[in-house]
Amino acid sequence: MDHNSPFSIWLIEEAKGKLHAHTGDGDPDKIAETLEQHSDLVLHYAEMLLRDNGVDKAIYRSLHTMRIDGECLDVPTVELIHKYFIQAIYLHDLGKVNPAFQRKKMKNTFVANKGGGISDTTHSLLSSVLYLHIYLQELQQMEEETEIRPSDQLPGERMYPFLRHTLYAFAYVISRHHTYLGSMDEGELELKVFEQETRNKVRSIQLRSEIIYYYQNKTSFLQDTSLFDDIYLARNLRYNDMHSPYPFYILTKLLYSMMVASDFRATFHYKEQRFVEMNYFSEKLPLMPVLNAYQSGAIYQTILRYKNGETGLDLVPINMVRTELFLETEKRLHERPEETMYYLEGPTGSGKTNMSINLALQLLDKNKNLNKIVYVFPFNALIEQTKQTLDKLFNKEELEGYRVEVINSITPMVTEQEIRAQGSFNKGSSLEESEPAHDYSAVLLQRQLLQYPVTLTSHVNLFNYLFGTGRESNLAFAHLCNSVIILDEIQSYRNRLWKEIIHFLRSFADTMNIKFIIMSATLPRLDLLMEKTNEENEVETYPLVLNRDKYFSNPVFRERVHLHFEWLKSKEKTDISILGSRLMTIIDKRRLHGYGNRILVEFISKKSAREFYNKMKKEITDIPIFELTGDDSPYYRKVRIDQLGKDVNTGQFYLQEVIVVATQVIEAGVDIDMDIGMKDISLLDSEEQFLGRINRSCNRSHCHAYFFDMDKASGVYRNDWRTEHDLHHEDYQRMLVNKDFSQFYGLSMQRINESRQLKGKDHWYLFERKVQLVDYKQVQNHMELIPDRSVTLFLNYPLETDEGTMEGKDVWDAYVQLMQSKKAMDHAEWRIRLSVVRQQMSYYTFTYQLDHGQTAPAIYSEMKGSLYYVENGTEFMEYEPDTRAWKFNRSKYNETERGPLL
Asked: Where do transmembrane segments lie in this chain (predicted)?
């Protein structure tokens, strides 16, 4: 079989079928996998991705949009680069011909003493050098024979250097397939790091030719010493903006992702002795049962009856508006299903989640080459809420086998066996009878490759997939092709990145066949930041809501909260005492009229929130007072949110009177419904997100919001153009009242564009230069969503749950033990056990911001990686009997850390 493999043409006759790619790792029953078998299997899985997930079309789209000095690539050049791409994947392990690798790593007795003096067992760099040798040699021959004549559009003096540059970039990717992507042109010296590495490898081969003894073309390799000089000469052209930036960046990222993903699948196949299938919407998992299940639901059926003009529906006003908005977005989508980027703008409470589910399913139905949905959120609370909504759809018998998976840092991986076991348990079977052995490796692989019809994840995870440099973060990249990606609350992205984000999203959408639905109640028109629009000079992103004022100005949304700006008339900052007095006055007046007193007070600093909370706890004893900040554990936050909810049977609030003191964590993603809001002013879109927590159900009158000025917003929202003006300006007050944020965002867009034209590190050319040079590390750093100087504290304290008390120390010890057993345990099982422990750890971990110049917190007992364990954690916690939970006292930790002299 090996002799018939196309791969064997690169091996000398005696080595065919004799060199190994993997061994049984001590399993005497498992036959070693030959280099040909592994390479053919890698190619098989690569071809599966190319064919079934649309990567092949993405490669061609990137090449067809590529420009060299403004000119298109001709067809022969496109086909040649496509071949280079596929062969880079196929030959990525060719360096395993290294006798030292075979003898020491594979324990292959066939090599005997060949290359006995060679100590270097690595293969990745050798693979890239041999790949370069094969195709530089072929290219040189083409050039000499003029087999491919340069076209009029792309002269030979540009085409051939670009082809060498492409080979060089693909070789760099091969050299990194076991590590991470850095920078292809890293280094300050005349010869760059990768150039030096390849040159050193070539010289070492010339000195010790046994390294490539089993390589078929070793004679020509040793004779042609000048072949590699061509790629170094092509560097001068690389630095001259030879090609357009985004298509080439995406092309090389696709190559890396395809290479590592196909390698992972092939390795799994060998170890588990079974094929790895794709788990998306397909013939195996058809879309129609899901679409039918959704459209047979009560909400969709009511909307359909309304659309068909049925009478007697008796819709309340808010549901009437929601229905009309739903129908408009669906109609607009049907008019332009070929678009790649859509805006979904709707007021808070207008049903955007339900609309987005419908739109995503409609896109999958209209575009048969789409095969998955990826929901992306800024907060875990939003992920969990949407998961609950989707579970109501997918937890039906006819949809068994369809998975809706949450991928974030605190959700443990769940196996199919666990799902089936729980299903059997729910149906009355014993759990013991229905619990098979866990297939840890399959679960991990599914998660790493986003192998689900519907995935819910975070903004941070998505950016890791798009811009990450590590192997694991890139596994998912190629699998994003043919997706519908729903981006929720995009305004929460760093304002300084909006221009970069829209350029990249547009490029990913156009190249990878991704349909982006960007949705929010406060939606910035990021297409205004595009360097150019299309030929008709129209906007780049298609709005699904044409007449937004029809909905935003509707009384059920616009007038559900009465806004008050009178506290902003004073030039003096509001202090804690004045705010407390105002709060108590509001409570007394509302009690006189019999109105509810569910009150939300939001601050933009934790310090002010804590001071106000402590003051109100002393002065108000007849109303429950809660505090919700980023310092709360998920358990504490869930308990509090549940207490703020309604009885599902009566529809009545559990607490008619309650005061919630909070920070920005409640602005989006927290499903609470309050009567009164009081907010420290910050960004205009944050004010609107805050209003979404007041009279959320739109069914009560006498709901009000009051704005005050206490802390400086620019100190919290650093380097954000949205802080330039605030609610002190009457124009901004009118924007908030009228729900019209176009002028507010328009000014931000203007400032962003202006800043990117100024000389200095923020100049737009310098960013596109990083992309053009495929400087993966610099692009990753630039696109980082949350750049901060924070560490994670693990505080040991007792956590009481419905299942009993869980000690932090026990969870920490389990984590430490798991970390120590990493090498001894199967990696897949270790990763899944770690995901379970991490969920427990999230109850005890808190983000802590370091001071300038500080490299670690002062108070901790033990450190593991980036985690700092605090043994006496209870000392910095406050117990609350009504929740049986502890709150982190950040100020006490700060005071203890910094000492009395500070």
From this structure: none
Query: What pLDDT does 447 receive?
Result: 74
Please state which of the four CATH numbers 1.10.4100, 1.10.3210, 1.10.10, 3.30.2320 is assigned to the domain occupying 6-23+30-272. Answer: 1.10.3210
CA angle, 701 as apex, 700 and 703 as ends, to 5°? Answer: 95
Other beta carbons within 10 angstroms of residue 37's beta carbon come to 22
Q: Where are the domains of the chain?
A: 6-23+30-272, 287-414+441-529+540-553, 561-762, 790-898
Q: How far apart are CA 800 and CA 664, in angstroms?
A: 27
- 336: Cβ–Cβ under 8 A, 6 or more apart, which residues? 542
User: How far, in Å, CA of 104 to CA of 92, rounded?
Assistant: 20
Query: Does residue 415 carry a pLDDT above 50?
Result: no
Question: How far is residue 851's CA from residue 836's CA, in Å, rounded to a whole number?
Answer: 32
Beta strand 562-564 pairing with 542-543 = unpaired
The span from the CA of 576 to the CA of 583, in Å, is 11
SS3 645: coil
Closest-CA residue to 680 (of 658, 703, 704, 713): 713
The DSSP result for 297-343, as a single string, is SHHHHHHHHHHTT-S-----HHHHHHHHHHHHHHHHHHH-TT-SEEE
Tokens of 273: 């002795």
Residue 1: pLDDT band (50, 70, 90) is very low
Asked if residue 723 lies in contact with residue 681, where contact means CB atoms within 8 angstroms, the answer is: no
Which structure tokens are listed for 231? 């790629």
For residue 625, give the 3-state DSSP assignment.
strand
What distances in angstroms separate CA 811 from CA 557, 795, 841, 867, one per listed residue?
A: 46, 11, 7, 13
Domains 287-414+441-529+540-553 and 561-762 agree in fold:
yes
Length of the chain: 902
User: 845, 570, 594: which is closest to 707 by C-alpha?
Assistant: 570
Assign domain 287-414+441-529+540-553 one CATH number from 3.40.50.300, 3.40.50.720, 3.20.20.140, 3.40.350.10: 3.40.50.300
Annotate 800-863 with three-state secondary structure. Answer: EECCEEEEHHHHHHHHHHHHHCCCCCCHHHHHHHHHHHHHHHCCCEEEEECCCCCCCCCCCCEE
Among 48-52, 60-64, 151-155, 309-313, the least confident range: 151-155
Each residue's pLDDT tens digit, 645-696: 999 889 899 999 999 999 988 876 678 999 999 999 999 999 999 999 999 8
CATH class of 561-762: alpha beta
Beta bridge partners of 486: 375, 517
Question: Per-residue pLDDT tens for 481-499?
Answer: 999 999 998 888 888 999 9
How does pLDDT run across 743-754, given as a tens digit for each residue?
999 999 999 999
Tell whether the torsion through CA atoms of 174, 180, 184 and 190 is positive or negative: negative
Burial class for 823, CB neighbours closer than 10 Å (0-12, 13-18, 19+): exposed
Predicted pLDDT of residue 100: 93
